[in-house]
Amino acid sequence: MSLIENTIYGKIDKVELAIMNLKMMAPIETGRSDKPYYVAYSGGKDSDVIRILCDLAGVKHELWHNHTTADAPETVRYVRQIPGINIRYPDTTMWDLIVKKKMPPTRLVRYCCSELKERNGNDRVIVTGVRREESRNRESRKFFESNEKYTNKRVKLDAEQLILNNDNTENREIVEQCIRQGKVIINPIIDWTESDVWEFLSHYGCESNPLYKCGFDRVGCIGCPMVNKKRYFEFDRYPKYKQMYIHAFQRMIDQNERKSDWKTGEEVFAWWMGEIKPTYKQQITIAEILDDLRYEYDL
């Protein structure tokens, strides 16, 4: 029996469970807070599911989208037509961040997500479209935050302590908490499959982001290192984004006092895409990365 059929016949299924969990944790309705749900809306299919579920649950909520400056044009247009959407534009851009951080964003160091997506929703109950199934098709990718006491604004970063809000990993739970930022995170579709998602959207007449009909199986920043080889497909479709990355990498080289063998932005781009291996001087040590992160995040 399908996802929607189960709902019709009154069985406690994934849809009903998600709605029940949303009602049980609703901030205003339960008196937990005077602020409604903060729904983290990316413009992807999973985000469409949670915005519809919030409507079905009848809970007060706000849709928030963080513009990253590296979003596909189709995503930008799609998000803007969502009723009631709140769009937050960042104080910086992906391209300036690359220069500031002195390195390209990588699978391990995703300062772009932390700076452009994750610095909002403090002291709020956040709803995300995270699903465990997504983690089975890619490496588990925990990120950093620490509960240790600050020492001279520096603190050890422990990759096992917290993950980014939008990370799909096997250890995600329906309800999570970030003590430092005062966030409570609700993941109502944590156990849904991709077929569940598409069946649900079809039932409610939502076609979702048009990029899914253009060969994309994810919606996010163009060139995201988490996509791996599919970045070639993205850069073929959006060659201007490739040039913007190369230009940012060149500025990164020109303005970085740390010596390296990099000569051009094209060389950095080739390394970033996994086409060439760096020399010793081009490599950045883990100690240098963590030192930069501690300083930048005032930890």
Keyphrases for this structure?
299 residues, alpha/beta, Rossmann fold, 2 domains, 6-stranded mixed beta sheet, 6 strands, 8% strand, disordered C terminus
Description of the structure:
- By secondary structure, the protein is α/β, with parallel strands linked by helices.
- The protein folds into two domains: 3-209, HUPs (Rossmann fold); 229-296, no CATH class.
- Helix content is 35%, strand content 8%.
- It has a six-stranded mixed sheet, covered by helices on one side.
- Strand 2 (61-66), helix 4 and strand 3 form a beta-alpha-beta unit.
- Helix 2 (14-25) packs across helix 3 and helix 8 (231-237) packs across helix 9.
- The longest helix has 17 residues, at 239-255.
- The relative contact order is 0.15.
- The model is unreliable at 137-163 and 295-299 (pLDDT under 50).
